[in-house]
Design goal:
Layout lengths: L1 E4 L5 H13 L3 E6 L4 E6 L8 H4 L4 E5 L19 E3 L3 E3 L3 E7 L6 H14 L3 E3 L17 H14 L3 E4 L6 H7 L2 E4 L7 H8 L5 E4 L6 H13 L5 E5 L15 H10 L4 E3 L1 H5 L2 H13 L4 E5 L17 H17 L3 E2 L6
Parallel strand pairs: 7-8, 7-14, 7-15, 8-9, 9-10, 10-11, 11-12, 12-13
Antiparallel strand pairs: 1-3, 1-4, 2-3, 5-6
The structure holds phosphoenolpyruvate and manganese (II) ion (MN).
The site of manganese (II) ion has 5 residues, from loops.
Length: 344
């Protein structure tokens, strides 16, 4: 259930509503918007009648949220939420953000140079994995904390905020102490302990859809992060498993539009993992913008043939730079713009 307060509702009236929710043995999550406050009821509220709340002073309306997901539901928030990575990489506003960088952080020189090149090409945040969830236990697993330090050096050199994956609940505090945004990858999309843990730390979370997850399952899982107290969740469509083998995954491009329809959370695409082949990344990136995403995350490597992971799908910095003007044109055609890198 959600309870929408009148625009002029006082804090006492909001507290009164919260008191009533607690008396029912339920919990609340109040979202203070610029115009009005919405209070979401968390817990088993199916048998409660929303009209009880409508008798309270300051309440505009109370209604059941029919979808199985609650906190991520669009009903809760008519406007798309914005999530800010670092100081000014705002995802969910009019400007579209391109987060770019290598799959894995390989060395300080690699990540600092790549950061400079992707920024030059128009990226507004840097990606790079220090903890890698590899399919094969004998593949490179990432440099761990040393990799986080290399990312911090790249941020220092370029001003780009950093997005990096966390794989285990035990590493959340460490990764959060370096990163500007924590990524939860497709293999951990239903690791509810990890979702709750990233929900308890203050940095935004770029949460990728599981490769076999329905959108209902995905949004309910996003609620784990939100319910733990972190409102700054960015959804990411990175391709799903189907019978089709021409690409690494099948880019469920319409899922981006459907997620935006069902949820107030900002949505980005990942044309790199969604396709798995560099020659498909630019067309898929264009489609990402055309279908209404709030930005994208792409893999860029200075020497894809020698990348330690995901070389086949990595663009070179030049390929990225060549792609960007067409993304700006498509953004313009759909009433958006491409964000410009801010820092020196
Ligand atoms: C990645 O971003 O490098 C990654 C491992 O992505 P995914 O979880 O989408 O496979
Ligand atoms: Mn990768």
């Amino acid at each position: 259930m959600i309870i929408v307060m009148n625009p002029d509702a006082t804090q006492d009236q909001i507290d009164n509503v919260i008191g009533m929710i607690r008396e029912m043995g339920l919990k609340e999550h109040a979202i203070q918007g610029t115009e009005l406050t919405v209070v979401a009821v968390i817990g088993e509220d199916r048998k409660k009648d929303p009209s009880i709340f409508e008798t309270l002073p300051g309440v505009s309306k109370a209604m059941k949220v029919l979808a199985p997901y609650k906190m991520s539901a669009r009903e809760l928030h008519k406007q798309t939420s914005t999530v800010t990575i670092g100081e000014d990489c705002v995802i969910g506003g009019n400007a579209l953000q391109v987060i770019a960088g290598p799959c894995s952080v390989e060395s300080e020189e690699q990540i600092v140079n790549t950061a400079r090149m992707v920024k030059e090409a128009g990226a507004t945040a840097l990606r790079g994995g220090a903890f890698k969830p590899r399919t094969n236990p004998f593949s490179f697993q990432g440099h761990g904390e040393d990799g986080l330090k290399m990312l911090a050096a790249a941020r220092e050199a370029t001003g780009l905020p950093i997005v990096t994956e966390v794989v285990a609940p035990a590493d959340v505090e460490l990764v959060s102490s370096y990163a500007d945004c924590l990524q939860v990858g497709t293999r951990n999309a239903q690791n509810y302990a990890l979702l709750s843990e990233v929900g308890k730390q203050p940095k935004p979370v770029l949460y990728k859809r599981g490769m076999s997850m329905t959108l209902d399952e995905y949004l309910q899982a996003a609620d784990y992060i939100l319910a733990a107290g972190n409102e700054n969740v960015i959804l990411c469509e990175r391709g799903i498993r189907t019978f089709e083998k021409f690409g690494r995954n099948t880019y469920s491009i319409a899922a981006i539009a459907e997620l935006k329809h069902r949820s107030h959370l900002p949505v980005v695409g990942d044309p790199s993992h969604a396709t798995g082949h560099a020659h498909l990344v630019t067309p898929a990136a264009r489609a990402t913008i055309a279908v209404g995403a709030d930005g994208m995350i792409i893999e860029v490597h200075h020497d894809p043939a020698h990348a330690w992971s995901d070389g086949a799908q990595s663009l070179t910095p030049k390929q990225m730079a060549d792609m960007m003007p067409s993304l700006a044109q498509i953004a313009d055609a759909v009433g958006r713009s491409l964000a410009i890198p801010q820092h020196a």
